[in-house]
Amino acid sequence: MTRTPTARLMDGAGLARRVNAATASAVEEIRRRTGTAPCLATVLVGEDPASVTYVRMKQTRCAKAGIRSRHIALPASVGTGELVEAVAALSHDPEVHGILLQHPVGPHIDERAAFEAIAPDKDVDGVTTHSFAAMGFGLPGFVSCTPGGILRLLDEYGVDLAGRHAVVVGRSAILGRPAGMLLLGRDATVTYAHSRTADLPALVREADVLVAATGRPGLIRGADIKPGAVVVDAGYGPGNVGDVEFGAAAERASLITPVPGGVGPMTIAVLLAQTVEAARRRLGPA
Ligand code: NAP
Known about the structure:
alpha/beta, Rossmann fold, 6-stranded parallel beta sheet, 10 helices
């Protein structure tokens, strides 16, 4: 007997379109008032095809919203000192409102040093220790874009997080870790799982809200999803596959993100929205 999915899809692509439309209106308002459009600087080290594609996508989205782009391309052989200098120059450039350093930057580079060269008020990708600490303390600042996009999606679908058990699978600095902190900030009871977690399926079975952020296709079995759970799949692997076994999970979840079209589009939408917010802070509010 074939079972039909019961979960409602969380349409990240649709929400991202609405967020991007609001961003474009805000850009137009800033441009009319100040004569200047917000500007996002992108920094790319080397020519990794995936990174090249991501940066190009971000530039295209910027252009659609009326945000100016400045692109700095550095050879794969660049050293930490030179990269830090290039990022610091953008931090000091009054024409630049937001900075995105595309990662990974290469194993020979001290990535943390390069990220820390981004001025906190231009850290629209939310990658500096300053931004991370502000997010952890619930202070104003820029959040990591993918976790920020996940929270916007959950809000859009009216998910009440207070007192719910949120299980975040993955603990990277840009995704799992900050996602858990944002959920904690909303009074969820948060458990992190990672590659050393002893019994992942047992934890998944207890999750009211599951955030999968590992990049391991099909790691989360649909049969382990708690009936009625909210499932957010941030994983993205070759062939458009996420971390969650989608079909079987959709039979048990109440809400689930598709891959693609769920978390992905929200990441760029948050990046653009934060770039405009950075410009507004610099150029003065309306
Ligand atoms: P990452 O830095 O490689 O981190 C992966 C995390 O998954 C690590 O914390 C790792 O644990 C954990 N993990 C690996 N295998 C596991 C297992 N068998 N059981 C439990 N946990 C396991 O990756 P990332 O940068 O966070 O990205 C994760 C995924 O999200 C990727 O598919 C990436 O493409 C996607 N992503 C999507 C967006 C978007 O916009 N949609 C943005 C960023 C990333 P340890 O810490 O113990 O190693």
